[in-house]
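LAB NOTEBOOK - FOLDING QUEUE
OPERATOR: T.R.
BATCH SIZE: 2
PURPOSE: Compare the predicted structure-token outputs for two unrelated chains run back to back under identical settings.
PRIORITY: normal
REVIEWER: second-year student, initials M.K.

ITEM 1
FIELD SEQUENCE / FIELD STRUCTURE:
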Amino acid sequence: MTDLLKWQWVVFLVPLALAVLLALATAVSVGGDHGESEGGHDHDLEGHVGHDGTNHDSDQEAESESEGHVSPLALIGVGQAPLSVILICLLVYWAVIGSLGNLTLGVHSIGFTIGLALVGSLLATSGTARLVGRFLPTSQSFSVKRHELIGREGTAIYPITESSGTVRLYDSLGTLRQLDCRTVLGGAAIPMDTKVIVIDYDRERQVFTVQKWDDLVRIKED
């Protein structure tokens, strides 16, 4: 038991505890958001945002220009899955791989174990994020088609740009969805935790176009 208090163990066990706390906080947050959304948020902006400022041909040209720019964070799956999922996976994989290294190699090999845990946790997190990003958006609600999400209100769970971004929202059945989103071509980046409206869906690229909720309300009032 006293061995677990050594820094060689603490460096792995503390992140594991943080991962558990983050998972609990995320579960509570999602539950609270779902409860708030049960009243429904069907807005009369749906007719207004059908094709507001979006151009599929221009979007496809911009896509080819942005393919060469890959963020370092994208290597661990940022943009493929919710940031909370990525952080939890990273912490858990770090803790598990590091602890197994201590058990099999001994604490005297802590340098090698840390290197192994670092590389292993990054690779495992990247793979998990891509797996979640591939299946989560399409497996949560089979009755609501993607184009039917146009006009729905959501929240950016981290910044949205012309090349990456994800929005969390509830569809008309109250099911939580994670959407791969982009800003309008030439539009400013949308910060995380910003309320947005889905204004279009590109079937070929399988991405949604969103705009700030405040901007659309301002346009409607004008």
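ITEM 2
FIELD SEQUENCE / FIELD STRUCTURE:
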Amino acid sequence: MVDSDPSLTARLGDVNARIDDAARRSGRDPVDLTRIVVTKFHPASLVEQLSALGVRDVGENRQQELSSKAAELRHVLEAPLRWHFIGQAQANKARAIRAAASVVHSIDRERIADAFEAAGTADDAEAPPLLDVLIQVNLTDDPARGGVRPDGLEALAEHVSGCRTLRLRGVMAVAPLDEEPAAAFARLAEYSRRLRAVAPGAEWISAGMTADFPEAISCGATHLRIGSAITGPRPARD
């Protein structure tokens, strides 16, 4: 077991305190929130330190990093991690992502859902394991941004609900850069309500990052994706 960096311990404690404070100010119980630590570009050793500090939910944006870190740490950690894939998914990488992740936050079209479904049924098992998924919603007018358009939410939800190896858990979004986060997250809360009309159990709202997680909490977020506030600056890449 690696020793934890005191600065990492301090940053994690500070973020935990801020989450607790934001939850209580919104009349919510902090225990109902899941903090996902995003470790993009950081080494597996940092994930090992986080695990030693009690972190159980870790997020990755890229399939290669997800697969590599999950494999490296699989037999090292005393407690299992729940790996969240939060980046834009590609159909040709669905099998590799599914092999490593417990949750995929970025289902935004039928083709992606079908790729993850196919990856879960390749062995023709009678009762294949379920993969928790969220539908990513595009909160901007830019079609190049990830996420389904709001007017396509219900149709995609119906499609995902029909996939026998996928368990639809809720919605995910990233706040636009040119809008107040609270306004964007309020729209996402309404999309969550619409989703639950199709899939009543899909109550998760994945929203809020380092710069805006208090606003996300006030609008009902259940899963927070927090990176640099906990991990520190990302390492320089070659």
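REVIEWER COMMENT (ITEM 2): The first strand starts at residue 34 and ends at 38.
FOLLOW-UP: none requested
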